[in-house]
Amino acid sequence: MAVSSFHRVFTFECRSDPDFSSLPSTENLRNNRRHFPAAGLSVAFYGVSSPILRFPPNFQRQLSTKARRNCSNIGVAQIVAASWSNDGTGNPAAGAPPVPAVASAVDATTAPLPLDLDAADDKNVVAAVENGAVQTNRSSYSSFLKSDASKTIHAAERLGRGIVTDGITTPVVNTSAYFFKKTADLIDFKEKRQTSYEYGRYGNPTSTVLEEKISELEGAESTILMASGMCASIVLLMALVPAGGHLITTTDCYRKTRIFIETVLPKMGITTSVVDPADVGALQSALEQNNASLFFTESPTNPFLRCVDIKLVSELCHKNGALLCIDGTFATPLNQKALALGADLVMHSCTKYMGGHHDVLGGCISGSTKLISEIRILHHILGGALNPNAAYLFIRGMKTLHLRVQQQNSTGMRMAELLEAHPKVKRVYYPGLPSHPEHELAMRQMTGFGGVVSFEIDGDLHTTIKFVDSLKIPYIAASFGGCESIVDQPAILSYWDLPASERAKWKIHDNLVRFSFGVEDFEDLKADVLQALEAI
């Protein structure tokens, strides 16, 4: 009898060791033993509440998709038998002690479990391999997850996931490698006739859930995770810009990205054009005069929150044979859909809004399967894999992403208006303000403007330091997008190694403040900011 035809199956039961004090005699054990030749199992019913099954190696891979679950992400568990009889009816054999009926069986890291085990089509849970990365079929989520708020919670989990479990939360699979039952299975995997994981650097079931969740939010075919946002930027640039190629980027961007572009890429013969985020004419000239492979830009940018017309520049790039990648970290997938606007790729430092709790590092890139596959090949060589424990923290953090971003959008907008009206504030940079140079563009392509507000104090370096030091709620720290408010002076935090004249080239003046508003009460933040302004 094939295992998948059984009506009752196995499950893990995590419990304390059973009481063997009342074991029957050896003869009774022999009489009560049942044998399942098709599965290669022998089960002794000892009269204890949970008799233990011994599985042959990799037995769980023989079980049907509809018969698999595990109880936890802990490697060892005690296994309980279902009340099968020799005739397969499900009734105990004569004279055998009753065995508690149990629900299901185990799975390690194969195909995900459908929501409705009896009615779901197998096609909804079939996994695919993309350069060693296992991916699941997400086609059915659109039927019942209409909003991003629901997707942040349920996408890649509610209809099944790479780790099959009865638990509501996705478990952590802490493993560095995955085994194959026999060499023939390994060959089938290598020749793409079998789906599996192979090595921890190439993929992990916990990470796959996060990748699929982000893909669902971005409307992407595929997503790849990396150990940090900076790691994602570097691997993307190295994978898509060939040696001797040309890259276009913008004046306003994260400094470490600029350093990599200016100091490392030239060693590979890669040249770069730098344009203002809103200067479409300069971008068009750079595309026409150079055989550019990629236009890489943030939108909004760091720290001035400049916005790029994604729809327009994507058309220009594609007309000239270049790809467009948007770093949407400041926007989040909730406030801006870069791929829908025409970008080929969108990346995020997941460390910021996605994680949202200032406790985990990570980065991601989303786009077409073709482009992500190219990036994945280099990523597997270079390493920089996201730890599965970090993936779990991101999955957890993203379940409140819509709530946090909603609050931060509101606080950011109200604080920007308050700061702009204050006499001790010289200038405010926030896309939601009509005074922002790309305000109308931001209104078209964004649904919210985030919790980061940059502004200039009406004073010098020391006046600005006094303002920052007078604040009681925010931490003076790097990063943004988390629950806790954070404040910094870019001239000190990010550019202090440069003289003031060099900082001025990038408009990083001594009185510039970048304030990331968290999810604290608005009135508390307002009072704190106002008292700090009064102190200067």
UniProtKB/TrEMBL annotation:
Highest taxon in the source lineage: Eukaryota
InterPro entries reported for this sequence: CGS1/2 (IPR044639), Cys/Met-Metab_PyrdxlP-dep_enz (IPR000277), Cys_met_metab_PP (IPR054542), PyrdxlP-dep_Trfase (IPR015424), PyrdxlP-dep_Trfase_major (IPR015421), PyrdxlP-dep_Trfase_small (IPR015422)
Pathway: Amino-acid biosynthesis; L-methionine biosynthesis via de novo pathway; L-cystathionine from O-succinyl-L-homoserine: step 1/1
Alphabetically ordered keywords of this record: Amino-acid biosynthesis, Methionine biosynthesis, Pyridoxal phosphate
Class of this enzyme: transferase
GO function term, MF aspect, one: pyridoxal phosphate binding
Record GO cellular component, one term: chloroplast
One GO BP: methionine biosynthetic process
Cofactor dependence: pyridoxal 5'-phosphate
Record-listed E.C. numbers: 2.5.1.160
One Pfam family in the UniProt entry: Cys_Met_Meta_PP
Catalytic activity line of the entry: O-phospho-L-homoserine + L-cysteine = L,L-cystathionine + phosphate; O-succinyl-L-homoserine + L-cysteine = L,L-cystathionine + succinate + H(+)
Family classification: Belongs to the trans-sulfuration enzymes family.
Name of the protein in its database record: plant cystathionine gamma-synthase
Species of provenance: Trifolium subterraneum (Subterranean clover)
Lineage, top ranks: Eukaryota, Viridiplantae, Streptophyta, Embryophyta, Tracheophyta
